[in-house]
């Protein structure tokens, strides 16, 4: 990890309008939790559904998209990445540093609010809060890697990322049984299921498969991004 690149990436990601999008999604989650608490719908079933459908199903991939593409795609679009690539820093180190920045941002804005929202509703009951917080962490790290890679390989990363999050993760991954084995969201929910003892949370994917898939996708995306950056010339062309 390169400290200078990390500092620049944090300032770029947190100092622009993206910070408002990063804050908005967790605020909506917490607001929904407060609303459920106020109207008395704060049981374990409602909490699990909120965590599955919004925290993991909507908030997590969007945070991954914002952070993952935000650490590299704008620099490629405006050409400033050329100044970065001209420095005597290996391309894999650049990719690894960008990934760590994106992953840490997603971890902060996803894991903590997820735990707080579940805790606000049912406390530590059945390990729901801890399970989904861990799911948000591992899923967010994987999303950060995938969307960072997307920001490197295409100039339409945000559009493609939204389509992927909505169509594959949101629809196909939830509705088509066979496709669930290839969904980051489903892998994350498997982790939550292993930690939580809630009767209302069950998944079809084995923990061994989910953990391996999360690791392979995360490492593979970061490595691929580093290799892809090597193909960029100092004129910005491949």
From TrEMBL:
GO cellular component assignments: plasma membrane
Entry keyword annotation includes Membrane: yes
Keywords: Membrane, Transmembrane, Transmembrane helix
Lineage: superkingdom: Bacteria
MF annotations from Gene Ontology: ABC-type transporter activity
TM region(s), chain numbering: 19-39, 51-73, 99-122, 128-150, 157-176, 205-227
Protein name per UniProt: ABC transporter permease
């Amino acid at each position: 990890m390169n400290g200078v690149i990390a500092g620049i990436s944090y300032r770029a990601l947190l100092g622009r309008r993206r910070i408002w999008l990063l804050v908005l999604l967790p605020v909506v989650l917490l607001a929904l939790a407060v609303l459920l608490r106020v109207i008395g719908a704060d049981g374990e079933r409602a909490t699990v559904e909120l965590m599955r459908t919004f925290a993991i199903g909507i908030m997590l991939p969007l945070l991954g998209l914002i952070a993952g593409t935000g650490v590299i795609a704008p620099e490629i679009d405006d050409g400033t990445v050329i100044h970065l690539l001209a420095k005597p820093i290996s391309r894999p180190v650049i990719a690894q540093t960008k990934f760590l920045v994106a992953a840490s941002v997603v971890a902060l804005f996803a894991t903590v609010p997820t735990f707080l929202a579940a805790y606000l509703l049912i406390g530590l009951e059945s390990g729901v809060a801890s399970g989904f917080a861990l799911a948000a962490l591992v899923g967010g790290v994987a999303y950060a890697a995938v969307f960072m890679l997307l920001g490197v390989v295409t100039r339409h990363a945000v559009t493609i990322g939204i389509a992927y999050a909505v169509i594959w993760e949101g629809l196909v991954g939830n509705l088509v049984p066979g496709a669930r084995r290839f969904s980051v969201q489903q892998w994350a929910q498997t982790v939550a299921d292993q930690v939580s003892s809630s009767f209302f949370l069950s998944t079809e994917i084995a923990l061994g498969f989910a953990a391996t898939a999360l690791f392979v996708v995360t490492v593979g995306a970061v490595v691929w991004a580093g290799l892809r950056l090597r193909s960029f010339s100092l004129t910005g062309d491949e």
